[in-house]
């Protein structure tokens, strides 16, 4: 999942929530809800932009 998120951010520095959902759609996570993962990717994009 981390590699998929990094690949997304490499291609799209300002992804939308829908972009993040699509990029991570091939990954399954049983440990948590996806909302926090999506939020983390969006936060990483903001941090990388600064």
UniProtKB/TrEMBL annotation:
A Pfam family that the UniProt record links to this protein: Fer2_2
Coiled-coil residue windows: none
Statement: the UniProt record of this protein carries the keyword Iron-sulfur: yes
GO molecular function, one term: 2 iron, 2 sulfur cluster binding
Keyword annotations: 2Fe-2S, Iron, Iron-sulfur, Metal-binding, Oxidoreductase, Plasmid
Key word Mitochondrion present: no
Domain spans labelled [2Fe-2S]-binding: 1-41
Listed InterPro entries: 2Fe-2S-bd, 2Fe-2S-bd_dom_sf, Diverse_Oxidoreductases
Record protein name field: (2Fe-2S)-binding domain protein
């Amino acid at each position: 999942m981390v590699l998929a998120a990094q690949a997304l951010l490499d291609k799209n520095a300002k992804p939308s929530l829908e972009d993040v959902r699509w990029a991570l759609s091939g990954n399954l996570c049983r440990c948590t809800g996806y909302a926090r993962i999506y939020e983390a990717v969006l936060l990483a994009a903001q941090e990388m932009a600064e």
